[in-house]
Amino acid sequence: NAGVTQTPKFQVLKTGQSMTLQCAQDMNHEYMSWYRQDPGMGLRLIHYSVGAGITDQGEVPNGYNVSRSTTEDFPLRLLSAAPSQTSVYFCASSYSGRLGDTQYFGPGTRLTVL
Amino acid sequence: DAKTTQPNSMESNEEEPVHLPCNHSTISGTDYIHWYRQLPSQGPEYVIHGLTSNVNNRMASLAIAEDRKSSTLILHRATLRDAAVYYCILRDPVGSNYKLTFGKGTLLTVNP
Questions:
Q1: What percent of chain A has pLDDT over 70?
Q2: Which of A102, B10, B58, B85 falls between 20 and 30 A from A69, CA-CA?
């Protein structure tokens, strides 16, 4: 298994540009989520999904869209990039998202918005 | 979400045991205690979790105080690869149990 994969690893955008961060998992996990991590801080939840066709907002959803058309993929879209969105983005998945499930994280995408 | 308090940083020597403390004085009776760690330039990885009893796995041990207001992650023999930020997280099975609420964690430095 490849586990959780994310592309690209690095990205530089200009203010106002849009882009999609890709996340895929091959473990047949129902639950997937996106976090951002700013320097010196813990991770904050952006959006999550409990299955194909179902998504919900986390604590910092503004400026981001998600969709879940398949079990494997959970892309994160930045609609109009802003410097405040400069961060490291992590995708995670688990079997169900329930309490005892281990969450598996991808290697991250480092995004810089100029 | 109940809050956790961890030291900002700790240091250890290679092949010595490490005890990473976590205070959670407002923990509720149904909160599970989870530990994740984040190696440099990587995503977090699961370490261990427990409710009331001490827990052991191949990576670490978790010692939970009798009143559950604190816990300690124990690495029995630290290696250089254990240098990471360690996060102590409470998860409530009654509330929103999808989210992992990360604090700033403890930065563990392991000296050779």
A1: 96
A2: A102
